[in-house]
Amino acid sequence: MFLDQRLNRSRLRELCSGKTVLNTFAYTCSFGVAAVSAGANAVNLDLSRNYLEWGQENYRLNGVEPEESDFIYGDVFDWLGRFAKRGRRFDVVVLDPPTFSRSRSSGVFRAEKDYSALLERALRVIESGGILLCCLNAHHISAVEFRYILKNSLPSPADLRQMPMPEDFPGSDYLKSFWVRL
Ligand SMILES: C[S@@+](CC[C@H](N)C(=O)[O-])C[C@H]1O[C@@H](n2cnc3c(N)ncnc32)[C@H](O)[C@@H]1O
How many CA atoms lie within 13 A of 26 on its CB side? Predict the structure, then answer.
């Protein structure tokens, strides 16, 4: 469980009631749990079937019966393309990728090089006026650099607000999070 993400989960709970949420790189689906417990409809997407099973267990532990169709196995890049083609849109999209990963279909993902491409795909599935959470867990990229990467890929005007790390992570700034309203 990523305790360092709890302010973002809290923020998600505040704003997503009655909305559709796409939780990419879902892992234990904790953003999904936060969303459904606030009354949203959440879809969790991950490249690992095991993690999605953990995610379903996480739903049950939080008193929510998981719906099979809300847990999608596969590559985020592929699925963002598929959703876009089908015209499927979400009110909120959570992007919390690993710094590095390898997928059979989309190849190697390196956050510093490929975040813009990820964002560009995510923008195709977001409702106009929608909300994005863009996270980056990387020591070697500063918040200023990350904001610059985001600004360069977002349509203007986009409102970016940085969420700090929780106060019980003193002196840490490895997790950079920006809430973006389009
Ligand atoms: C750092 S975790 C994300 C943490 C998660 N947001 C949470 O709050 O628990 C990274 C996840 O990304 C998944 N992943 C990595 N590359 C992927 C890809 N190309 N498509 C889909 N999922 C991917 C991994 O299986 C892993 O579960």
Answer: 36
Q: What is the pLDDT of residues 64-119, one digit of tens each?
A: 999 999 999 999 999 999 999 999 999 999 999 999 999 988 899 999 899 999 99
Between the CA of 47 and the centroid of ligand 1 the distance, in Å, is: 7
pLDDT tens-digit series, residues 120-154: 999 999 999 999 999 999 889 999 999 999 999 99
Residues flanking ligand 1, CB < 6 Å: 2, 5, 25, 27-28, 30-31, 46-48, 51, 75-76, 96, 98, 101, 103, 106, 109
Q: Assign 171 to helix, strand or coil.
A: coil
CA 143 to chain centre: 17
Cα angle value 99/102/106 (rounded, 5°): 110
